[in-house]
Amino acid sequence: MPNSYPEIYFPVLVQAAVAIAVAAALTSISYLLGKRTRGRVKDSPYECGIEAVGSARERVSVKFYLVAIVFILFDIEAVFLYPWAVVFRELKMFAFVEMLLFVALVLAGFFYIWKKGALNWSESD
């Protein structure tokens, strides 16, 4: 049984060193042995078989970011629902009331952004 911190963390350090060495070796071998061809077609961006039109530096509507934030919000809600479901029988009514409050707050936020029009894609700014 390890008694000191170096003895405890030595296997972790060895694994990290091996992982870094393998990554560096594979990258180096790929760079040394890989075929390098350059050309206009090879260097052009490729997006789903469609020719690139315009600049990649165009402004993006803020609604994309709002929808992404809402998506993350509901993902986090799902992350909190799973452990609650696991221990639901042990906590009984207390857990039910707490999760009911949590879901009510999340739904209140969802209805707020819905009423503000953050999810309405048909209207332009």
Describe this structure in words.
There is one protein chain. Helix 3 (62-86) runs antiparallel to helix 4 (88-116). This protein is mainly alpha-helical. The longest helix has 29 residues, at 5-33. It has one domain (5-116): Up-down Bundle (Methane Monooxygenase Hydroxylase, Chain G, domain 1), CATH 1.20.58. The chain starts with a helix and ends in a 9-residue tail after the last helix. The chain contains four helices and no strands.
Describe the structure in brief.
With 125 residues, this protein is mostly helical.
Task: List the topology elements.
Blueprint lengths: L4 H29 L6 H4 L18 H25 L1 H29 L9
Helix pairs in contact: 3-4
Question: What labels describe this entry?
Answer:
125 residues, mainly alpha, Methane Monooxygenase Hydroxylase, Chain G, domain 1, 70% helix
Q: Ranges with pLDDT <50 over ≥5 residues?
A: none
What would CATH call the class?
Mainly Alpha
Assembly state (oligomeric): single chain
Tell me the total number of β-strands: 0
Distance between the termini: 65 Å
The CATH H-level superfamily is NADH:ubiquinone/plastoquinone oxidoreductase, chain 3
Note the total helix count: 4
CATH topology: Methane Monooxygenase Hydroxylase, Chain G, domain 1
Largest beta-sheet characterization: none
Strand content: under 5%
Q: Give the SSE order as H and E letters.
A: HHHH
Give the overall form.
Answer: flat
User: Based on the structure given, which CATH architecture is correct?
Assistant: Up-down Bundle
Structural class: mainly alpha
Computed Rg: 26 Å
Mean pLDDT: 84
* Overall tally of domains: 1
Helix fraction, binned, reads 55-70%
